[in-house]
Amino acid sequence: MSGDVAAALREPWDSLRRQREAAEFGVWIFLGSEALLFAGLLLAFAVNRTLHPAGFAASGRETDIVFGTVNTLVLLTSSLAMAVGSEAARAGLRRLALRALATVLLLGLTFLVLKGFEWAKDLREQLWPGAGFRLAEPGARLFFGLYWTMTALHALHLAGGLAVVGWLSWQGWRGTRPLGSPAFQVAALYWHLVDVVWILLYPLLYLGGRA
Amino acid sequence: MSGITADDAMAEAPQERQGDSYLTAETGLASWLLTTDHKRVALLYAAALTAFFFIGGAAAVLIRLELFTPASDLVSAEGYNRLFTLHGLVMVWFFLVPAIPNTLGNFLLPLMIGARDLAFPRLNLFSWYLFMGAGLLLLAALLLGGVDTGWTFYTPFSTGYAHSNVLLAALAVVLVGFSSVATGVNMLATVHLLRAPGMGWFRLPLLVWSIYGTALVMVLATPVLAAALLLVVAERAFGLPIFDPRQGGDPLLFQHLFWFYSHPAVYIMILPAFGVVSEIVPCFARRRIFGYTFMVYAILMIALLGFLVWGHHMFVSGQSLYASLVFSFLSFVIAVPSAIKVFNWSFTLYRGQISFQAPMLYALGFIGLFTLGGLTGLVLASVPVNRHVTDTYYVVAHFHFIMVGGAVTALYGGLHFWWPKITGRMPPDGWARFAAVLMFFGFSFTFFPMFVMGFLGMPRRYASYPPEFQVWHVLASAGAVLLAAAYLLPMGYLAWSLVRGRRAGDDPWNATGLEWRTASPPPRDNFRVPPIVEEAAYLYHPRHEGPRHEEQEPHRDQGGGT
Amino acid sequence: MSGLSGWVPLWPPAASAEAGTVDAIVLLLLGLSGAVLLLVLCLVAGFAIRYRRGSPAKRGALPELVQSEVEIGWTAATLLLALLLFAWAASAQLGEERTQSDALEIHVTARQWMWKAQHPNGAREINALHLPRGEPVRLLMTSEDVIHSFFVPAFRIKQDVLPGRVTQLRFHPTETGEFHLFCAEFCGTLHARMLGTVTVMEPGDYARWRAAQPEGDGLAREGAALFVSLGCAGCHGAGGGGSEVGVGATVRAPRLAGLYGRDVPLADGRVVRADEAYLRDSILQPGRDVAAGYAPLMPSFAGLLGEGEVQRLVAYLRERGEQPGEGR
After folding, report:
1. Per the CB < 8 Å rule, is B455 touching C26?
2. From the list C57, C193, C285, which residue is nearest B248 (CB)?
3. B323 touches chain A (CB under 8 A)
4. Number of domains comprising chain A
5. Which of A52, A33, A18, A31 is nearest to A187 (CA)?
6. What's chain B's average pLDDT?
7. Is residue B335 less than 8 Å (CB to CB) from chain A?
8. Nearest to C302 among A53, A54, A138 (CB)
9. What domain range is B381 assigned to?
């Protein structure tokens, strides 16, 4: 186990405990930064929703609530798996950790695939706010402008999270990264942020017009 | 208790000292491009920033040449718009924002707190590559014909009307923003977790505090800019309407998001300069900094209040008068911590033993120029006067006094001050003093006339102008020649000093601070013996006495005992 | 021109009531800033000379007074100064905001790269604006494309001109003469050529000038024609007299005569003042502020009407609004 610690330790740290503290501190700050990125978009959404309440409500009824709800469940479950994986890694439970991470990968991919189907359906239903846009309410184009931007940015973040988790799982499976590495907790924190962002997007985009 | 002095260390291992500084520890291009040493990354940044300073400076020279005459004769109106946009984009995001934090800060932060490196050395290198990637995108935008939106990217001009490479430029700025965030995270974690034993929060040198405040602002403000520019990209590239007034969108929303970043960005540029001056002034006055605690809280106040004043850029935009008054109030309030700093620097001189080497001349010049820049900001903070002078050369003069007269002067001062630490060679002091004085006067001649013509009504971003403003433009352009010389001269003699400069000892200025407790240039791991800190910063004299000029060792080291 | 005589102006001409207020604040700020700057320079230069290395001046510990009280002193002093300046500038601004009721209203439309103005009688000008001296003026401005900014240095006023929105600018010319009009917000290639001349004339001269202009249809008269041709009258009744089901019109719609300037209760409980902005929004986004008691049936005219047409309609509704009692 002490070899494990030595392998996980990086410059300029003297102890793994301190290194883990730094990694988690750093990623929390990064998450604060990411939260403000989405906060900018949410502010844009809030402003336009206040300007065009009717248009936004009408548009909110056009998004596909089935896809949205299923995806919310998928993502919440993936966060559970991620929490299990990160704690199992910290406790040195290799099999459990790898299985949990594999579940995360599977659920994350499921989310993206479902999202892809949803986008295809949206395009078929002429919900791209360009030529031939279906809705006439003022503000509907703004809603869908933000819908596409925010879901795309979220999907991009999720894809980034998948890449990180995939990479860590691969390294954990090959044994090139010791389970004691703080990277697992860091990845978990990031994954939870992506989840939290979705939890904010879901009511705004899918439930807003249906209340 | 009593630290090892430079002489002891020299006696211990003279050979080893010469051989393994961070500069010579490894050789070859790969050892630089793949380095995780914060000192080498700092030099990588310095090289890139020098290049960008030349590009942005060249644009400034062309602008001043064009404005020599009222007609737009040297370049077309279209060309002029691209020039000032290029100047703004390059100078703000690729020079001023990273100038002090990523070069001096990167180099000094671990040294000043007694650490071996930054908390995440590989992230540090990664952020340099992000920076370079963003720089290449911007250069691509430039080579493909430039950008003509101004550095502010105001909608709906940028989203619907500009016929230039807005997308590339906006993506470059988003990317450089991520580089900034990476640096900020790294520095915050370093200050929190890598301070040497005994280095409590209120023993930190003020440069560390100011970089800490800067990093905080970088991390929290930059993502909002990224959000605003991503929305511009979405609207321009994919036709997704966000700000488009024809679809009911609000073009002012962009301005709110943009200035929510870009006003704090002013503090990203000036706070590190405060830190540099706070290191230089006590050293050459041989006195403790006056009111250390107030200085720390002033930095934090500025970082905090900086987030609450963005609306003062929008007094004439059509925002509600009451919003304007709130922003005006906060803008007046933020003048207080800045005033505290100026008075504290002045009083640090009181009963000192002041000498006037080049770094001190730069620092004194900074105090003068920054004070004028700050005071002219009060005029802009008052709503009725702002309605007259905003968007004129008055504003141009004001922010150049802060960012160029302030931040760039401090950068040059800091560069001269820590040059011996970075390179192991002394800058030639005579030339350096000449350059410092030239910079002060060159700067004043260039930018002071702009206050006058701005008040007379000369709007900014004009390629041609009514002839009655010409006399002021001619004065400014003439001053710019002096200023350009003052910026180029140090590059010459500093390069010369790399080869021919006098070798520097560990602590050539007799300064306190941990960075002077190691070799010049420092070894790869910064300190042979991990330092332990037992005293507060700036112990240039015992607490209840003043400095005596005869004494050879007028200070005690901040760190030392093994 | 002034450079030839060796005389270079340091102060712009002041030709409006606002200029007086602004100049007074500027002078005060100049004085105060000068004093502070002088103080800092004296401190820095004085200390630098007196305490240069090796000078015979007394050193040693700082006097008690300087230790901490002075710090709190200048913090409090600068804060007080800042608050004072704020209070003065803010009250000056608020005082100016008090509505000048009987202002001469001129519609200004900005576009890349020209200024278009239209006087109440329909007279139009491009890149020029004629005004009578001594009469309060209210500009109602909008843009057809990007953001511009209306800036007359001699009046010390500036206001951004936004697309999709009407911004107002009130001022009170006090001197005759010709003054620069600049666009102050960067608006594209020929931003620097988006100039105009503001001519302030004696009221008599202005009346003569206006009478000599080719009399276009008045804004309101053109608006009246639009009101009919667009079918507004179908629901709102001829002349905007309003309608009830069964009284001629098939759909029930708010009565528009006498509306302007009144407070309108909305369906969601809010109350808004029916000003230009409200009328304009109601034409372009009728679903946003629905008057209480009416169904949100009106279609949006956004995209169907040009900026000028909206202006004419609004001018017409205003004129109707100022003749209450008619139609009922």
Report:
1. yes
2. C285
3. no
4. 1
5. A31
6. 90
7. no
8. A138
9. 38-501
Six token digits for residue B439: 């910079």
Check CB contact under 8 Å for A52 and C296: no
Please judge whether B238 and A148 are an interchain contact, meaning their C-beta atoms are less than 8 angstroms apart: yes
Show Cβ contacts of residue B11 under 8 Å, excluding neighbours closer than 6 positions: none
Please, which residues bridge with residue C106 across strands? C139
The Cβ of residue A66 has, within 10 Å, a number of other Cβ atoms equal to: 10
Using CB atoms, list chains with 3+ pairs below 8 Å to chain A: B, C
Instruction: State chain C's maximal CA–CA distance in angstroms.
Output: 103
Buried b (16+ CB within 10 A) or exposed e, B482-512: bbbebbebbeebbeebeeebeebbbbbbbbb
**Closest Cα of chain A to B461: distance in Å?**
29
> Domain containing B210 — which CATH number?
1.20.210.10
Question: Which residues partner with C263 through β-bridges?
Answer: C273
Interface contact flag, C145 B455, Cβ < 8 Å: no
CB-based burial label for A105 (10 Å; 0-12, 13-18, 19+): middle
Reported as type and span, the H/E element at residue B423 is helix B409-423
C-alpha–C-alpha distance, residues B457 and C180, integer Å: 9
DSSP state of B21: B
The answer to whether residue A183 is domain-embedded is yes
- Pick from C11, C61, C93: which is nearest to B546 by CB? C61
Per-residue b/e over B202-225, b at no fewer than 16 CB within 10 Å? ebbbbbbbbbbbbbbbbbbbbbbb
Amino acid at B515: E
* Window A:43-62, CB contacts with B under 8 Å: 43-44, 47-48, 51-52, 55
Where does the pLDDT of residue B556 fall: very low under 50, low under 70, confident under 90, or very high at 90 and above? low
User: Given C58, C74, C185, which is nearest B343 (Cβ)?
Assistant: C74
Give me the number of domains chain B comprises. Answer: 1
Scanning the structure block, which residue is given the tokens 């350059």? Answer: B435
* Inter-chain CB proximity B249 and A29 less than 8 Å: no
SS3 content of chain A, % helix, strand, coil (to 5): 80, 0, 20
Mind telling me how many Å the CA of C81 is from chain B's nearest CA? Answer: 9
Place of tokens 């802060």: B402
For residue C86, list chain B residues with Cβ-Cβ distance below 8 A: 328-329, 332, 381-382
Query: CB distance from B530 to chain A under 8 Å?
Result: no
CA distance C76 to C60: 27
Closest-CA residue to A148 (of B174, B239, B223): B239
What is the average pLDDT across B536-554? 71
Inside any domain, residue A13: no
CA distances in angstroms from B558 to B116, B500, B511, B539, C143, listed in the order given = 17, 31, 10, 7, 62
CB contacts of B114 in chain A (<8 Å) are: none
Contact call for C287 and A51, based on CB within 8 A: no
Q: How confident is the model at residue B453 (pLDDT cuts 50, 70, 90)?
A: very high
Phi, psi of A52 (to 5 degrees): -130, 70
Low-confidence winner among A151-155, B53-57, B422-426, B555-559 (lowest mean pLDDT): B555-559
Report the candidate in B56, B80, B91 with the shortest Cα–Cα distance to residue B465: B80
Distance CA B493, CA B428 (A): 7
> Is A95 within the bounds of a domain?
yes
Q: Which of C67 and C44 is assigned the larger pLDDT?
A: C44
Cβ(B151)–Cβ(B82) below 8 Å: no
Q: Which amino acid is at A84?
A: V
Range of the domain at A109: 29-210
Give the whole-angstrom CA distance, residue B210 versus residue B204.
10
C139's enclosing H/E stretch is: strand C137-143
Q: Which one is predicted more confidently, B532 or C317?
A: B532
CATH no. for residue A192? 1.20.120.80
Residue B55 lies in a domain: yes
Is pLDDT of C293 > 80? no
Which residue, B107, B94, B100, is CA-closest to B42? B107
